[in-house]
Write a structure and sequence with these properties.
Strand order of the largest sheet: 14-13-12-11-7-10-9-8-17
Strand content: 15-25%
Radius of gyration: 21 Å
């Protein structure tokens, strides 16, 4: 984690006022902020007046904006959580930080190296917090792997595999042709969080060819990209597969981590148990070690959260403020959302950098940008910069 200066916030005990930008995926975060004990007012920002009204009425929130600029010009707001489409992440993050507000942002931090550097610089200059809200580093599967690794149960790490396969047919036009590796953080971040390391270099290749009608927006020729990532000062190789188009497979996103004592494999299906492999003693003649396989259901670790947020780690019920019928919601991304909100808010209140600060966010995002460059160069090894 970076030790760059963070300006004091909340020193007077005043609750934080947070604006949520983008109410598609972002709607799931609104009740988390509304229920957080250190958050006061919650504001909503969306370009669609209809969606703004629907989410605002559902949660009884009256502070509504159709333009981010209006939030940034309003001194009432302490922090902004960006959940707009990827193309806006860098622009909006820079605007928030330069307006003197704390910034949380959905993944990825940005899609170009220069934008990563600009956000790191803007965070340092502003003294405000920046956090990339990486779900895979707070999902229950990761939390189990982290607990086992920190306790020594896995032993020394020897291999990591991450994958994200999702057919984006039918998604909005701004996704069509998107380079898969530039969305790598879900697949790679668990290893970087576990080890505290960063990627030194990457060799990647594209698999198959993207349909021509999809290529103009990004100039990306590959529906699938596969890369091998070497870490700095840590002898574990990461094998990552990213596929967004032309692959007959339902959505799956997950990781497997292997140690010399135990290993964990996750199917990538939410709420399914992980498979644990435990190395057994040598056989009678001192030859042939096998592994015992068991299933492990990752716990919720909800005791780490404020009581008001603990219910959001699994399926939960919302009672709309507008009198509509109760809604049953599934906690997305392994129940990670309340952990992300709590870490972002706590980092501001406690006047410290968040766990996934600007430098860490850039270090977790840059490998995918470099991997796509490697694939375009036919597998040439590409170094990943430091920040």
């Amino acid at each position: 984690m970076n030790d760059s200066r963070v300006e004091e916030s909340g020193a007077d005990g005043k609750p934080l006022d947070v604006a949520v930008v983008g109410l598609g995926f972002g709607a799931d975060f609104v009740p988390l902020y509304a229920d957080h004990p250190h958050v006061g007012r919650v504001g909503l920002v969306d370009s669609s007046p209809e969606r703004l009204a629907a989410v605002g009425d559902r949660h009884g929130i009256t502070d509504r904006y159709t333009r981010l600029e209006d939030v940034l010009a309003d001194d009432r707001w302490d922090a902004v959580h960006i959940l707009a489409p990827v193309a806006f992440h860098a622009e909006y993050s820079l605007a928030v930080l330069r307006a003197g507000k704390h910034c949380a942002c959905a993944v990825p931090m940005a899609t170009e190296l220069d934008d990563l550097r600009a956000i790191v610089d803007a965070q340092r200059e502003s003294g405000k917090n920046y956090m990339m809200m990486e779900t895979s580093a707070y999902g229950r599967e990761y939390l189990l792997a982290e607990e086992m690794y920190r306790s020594g149960d896995l032993g020394a790490l020897t291999l990591y595999r991450g994958y994200h396969i999702q057919n984006l047919d039918g998604y909005p036009d701004y996704w069509q042709g998107y380079p898969p590796m530039k969305y790598i953080t879900h697949a790679l971040s668990p290893l970087l969080a576990l080890t505290g390391s960063t990627v030194a270099d990457v060799t990647a290749l594209g698999s198959a060819r993207l349909n021509e009608e999809r290529t103009p927006r990004f100039g990306n020729p590959f529906p699938t990209e596969v890369g091998l990532f070497r870490l700095r000062n840590f002898d574990v190789l990461a094998d990552i597969t990213m596929s967004f188009f032309q692959t007959a497979r339902s959505y799956v996103e997950g990781f497997s981590v292997y140690g010399d004592q135990r290993s964990l494999e996750w199917s990538g299906v939410p709420d399914e148990p992980m498979r644990m492999f435990e190395l057994l003693p040598l056989g009678p003649q001192g030859r042939g070690r096998s592994a015992r396989e068991t299933e492990v259901a990752p716990p919720d670790f909800a005791s780490r959260l404020p009581e008001a947020l603990a219910r959001y780690v699994r399926r939960y019920t919302l009672t709309p403020a507008d009198g509509g019928p109760a809604l049953t919601k599934v906690a997305g991304h392994g129940g990670s959302h309340p952990y992300l909100v709590h870490e972002f808010v706590s980092s501001i209140v406690e006047r410290r950098a968040p766990a996934i600060d600007a430098v860490t966010s850039a270090a977790w995002t840059a490998p995918g940008i470099c991997a796509h460059e490697s694939a375009l160069r036919g597998g040439e090894r590409v170094p990943v910069p430091t920040f």
